[in-house]
C-alpha cells in the first residue's frame, strides 16, 4: 500500500512539473502582435515600435542572451561577398563578433545576395543593377547602401541558430523592410516552429517604389524558420503588372534561444 501511495505521489509531482500538451500547443498558436506599415515615415515608426516589442539590440556577440533582439542591415558584407558574387548563407552566424547573429539563409534558387555598393571594385551597379539596370532607379535602400535578395528564386528560408554555433534556436519573431512591393499579395512571411508546424502566414503591405514593413512578434520564442517571399517573380525581368519584383533591407528578429 505504501508503495502504491509513493508511486501515486510521484506521478502527481511529475505531472505538475511537466507542461501539459494543451499548454505546449497554446504557446505556439497564441495570437501574435503584427506590425505593418507602408511609406517612409510610417515604416520608420513601425521599425522602432517593433524593436521595442523585442527588446534591446544584442549586436553580433556569440552565445544566446536570452532576451532582446538581433539585426542585419547588409552593409557589413565585404565587396568580395556582395553582388555579383554569392553571399555565404551562414555569413551572419560566424563564431566571433560582429557576425555571430544566429541567422542561416538559403534559397531554392541559385544563391542569396547582398547588392553591390557604389564604389565596389568589380564595377557592378548598386541595388542589383548587375541583374537588370532598371533596378538601380527602381529600388531604394532604407539604411546604408546594400539591399538583399535571392537570385534565381523569389523565396528565402531563414532559420535560426544559437549565435556563433550550429545549435538550433527559436526566436519570438521576425520583421523586415521591403522596397517596391506593387501588390499586397506579392510578398509574405510564413512562420514555422521547431517541429515544422506552420504558425501563420502574413502579407506585406504594398508600396510601389517605396518602403514597406512587416514584423510579427509572439509572446514566447517559438519561431524556428521563416519562409520569405519576394514579390511574384525572381529578379531579372523588368518590374510590371505581370512581374512584381521586390528586394529587402533591414532584418530584425528576436534573440535566438536554444530549442
Can you count the helices?
Answer: 4
Question: Which percent range fits the helix content?
Answer: 10-25%
pLDDT below 50 for ≥5 consecutive residues: which ranges? Answer: 1-27
Task: Tell how many strands the DSSP assignment holds.
Answer: 14
Mean pLDDT: 90
Measure the end-to-end span. 41 Å
Which structural class do you get from the secondary structure elements? alpha+beta
Task: Indicate the proportion of strand residues.
Answer: 25-35%
The gross shape turns out to be globular
Rg (CA only): 21 Å
Helix and strand string, N-terminal first?
HHEHEEEHEEEEEEEEEE
Largest sheet: 5 strands, antiparallel
Strand order of the largest sheet: 1-11-8-13-2
SSE order and pairing:
Blueprint: H1 2-17, H2 21-29, E1 33-38, H3 40-54, E2 69-72, E3 103-106, E4 111-114, H4 135-138, E5 148-151, E6 155-160, E7 169-170, E8 173-181, E9 188-192, E10 198-203, E11 207-217, E12 225-229, E13 247-254, E14 257-258
Antiparallel strand pairs: 1-11, 2-13, 3-6, 4-5, 6-12, 7-14, 8-11, 8-13, 9-10, 9-12
Amino acid at each position: 500500500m505504501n508503495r502504491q501511495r509513493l508511486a501515486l505521489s510521484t506521478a502527481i509531482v511529475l505531472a505538475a512539473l511537466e507542461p501539459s500538451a494543451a499548454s505546449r500547443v497554446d504557446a505556439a498558436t497564441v495570437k501574435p502582435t503584427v506590425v505593418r506599415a507602408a511609406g517612409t515615415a510610417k515604416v520608420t515608426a513601425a521599425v522602432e515600435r517593433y524593436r521595442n516589442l523585442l527588446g534591446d539590440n544584442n549586436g553580433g556577440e556569440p552565445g544566446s542572451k536570452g532576451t532582446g533582439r538581433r539585426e542585419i542591415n547588409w552593409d557589413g558584407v565585404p565587396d568580395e561577398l556582395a553582388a555579383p558574387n554569392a553571399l555565404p548563407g551562414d555569413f551572419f552566424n560566424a563564431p566571433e563578433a560582429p557576425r555571430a547573429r544566429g541567422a542561416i539563409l538559403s534559397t531554392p534558387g541559385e544563391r542569396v545576395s547582398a547588392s553591390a555598393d557604389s564604389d565596389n571594385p568589380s564595377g557592378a551597379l548598386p541595388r542589383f543593377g548587375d541583374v537588370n539596370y532598371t533596378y538601380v532607379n527602381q529600388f531604394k535602400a532604407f539604411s546604408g547602401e546594400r539591399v538583399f535578395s535571392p537570385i534565381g528564386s523569389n523565396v528565402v528560408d531563414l532559420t535560426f541558430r544559437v549565435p556563433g554555433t550550429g545549435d538550433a534556436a527559436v526566436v519570438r519573431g521576425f520583421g523586415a523592410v521591403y522596397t517596391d512591393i506593387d501588390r499586397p499579395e506579392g510578398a509574405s512571411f510564413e512562420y514555422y516552429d521547431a517541429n515544422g508546424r506552420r504558425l501563420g502566414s502574413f502579407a506585406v503591405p504594398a508600396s510601389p517604389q517605396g518602403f514597406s514593413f512587416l514584423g510579427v512578434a509572439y509572446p514566447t520564442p517559438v519561431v524556428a524558420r521563416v519562409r520569405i517571399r519576394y514579390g511574384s517573380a525572381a529578379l531579372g525581368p523588368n518590374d510590371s503588372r505581370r512581374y512584381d519584383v521586390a528586394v529587402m533591407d533591414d532584418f530584425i528578429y528576436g534573440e535566438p534561444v536554444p530549442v
